[in-house]
Amino acid sequence: MKWKKLGKVYEPNGSSDWCHTHAMVPIAEHLYDDIYKIYFSPRDVDNRCHVAWLIIDLNNPQQILEQAKKPILSPGKLGTFDDSGAMANSIINIGDKKYLYYQGVNLGVTVPFKNSIGLAISSDGGETFQKFSEGPLLDRTYAEPHFCATPMILKEDGVYKMWYLSCIRWEPSDNKPKHYYHIKYAESNDGIDWDRKGIVAIDFKNDDEYAIAVPRVIKEDGVYKMWYSYRGNRYRIGYAESENGINWIRKDHLAGITVSDSGWDNDMIEYPFIFDHKGLRYMLYNGNGYGKTGFGLAVLT
Hints:
The chain is mainly beta. Helices cover about 0% and strands about 55% of the residues. Strands 1-20-19-18 form a 4-stranded antiparallel β-sheet. Strands 2-3-4-5 form a 4-stranded antiparallel β-sheet.
């Protein structure tokens, strides 16, 4: 694989209180012709994530055709799993509804945060979303005692399949506790109640790695293909393949995209989203600062 970068698409300019900085974890949804709706998660003046959208034409992606004037998803009530932020991760159509799976952020005391996985549902084609519940779909359990986040969902043969971030431990460090998380796999019959068996899909490849997140999975010619973010010192985009979606072989050297020599993505590159359009494969991705410098677009050559 070799990706050609098409440039930065969007970065908040700080003029909005709720869409103040960052444009994290972009997700593409086809509307019509060459027009796409991009969901993303900006941070407000209090550093809390919301969920927003904008519309672009792939022929000129730097020109924003329309942009949300208010968030479609915001932090929850005080004390709930998402009271410190809501970040979109995966959207699928189920019947005439859209299911938006998102990461809820809850700040901690002994550790900086505890994330969980929530669900919001749209019955009007994505104009508005209502949270399925004030509690998370997936949270810490006796088998996974720390936190989970960044879900990716596919439906195949009546089974909902999820790949998600699972934190396995925190360790003390000089400045603040350091988290270790990798990618696990779960299944569901309805997209709401999930069976987690602790199956590890993507694990650390060496002792330097400590964070693997935001899996993106497609199935092509009978092969499951996953792009994801991994890091030791700085985030990079990785790639893996699987015959069954459960047991994966990492092939990070085939990812075909890395940091630029200069500019908005010269320090880190992460949070890819893969989609196909008119015979071409595209990738949305974030750059420096976990999306602080916005998101860009690349095309597979």
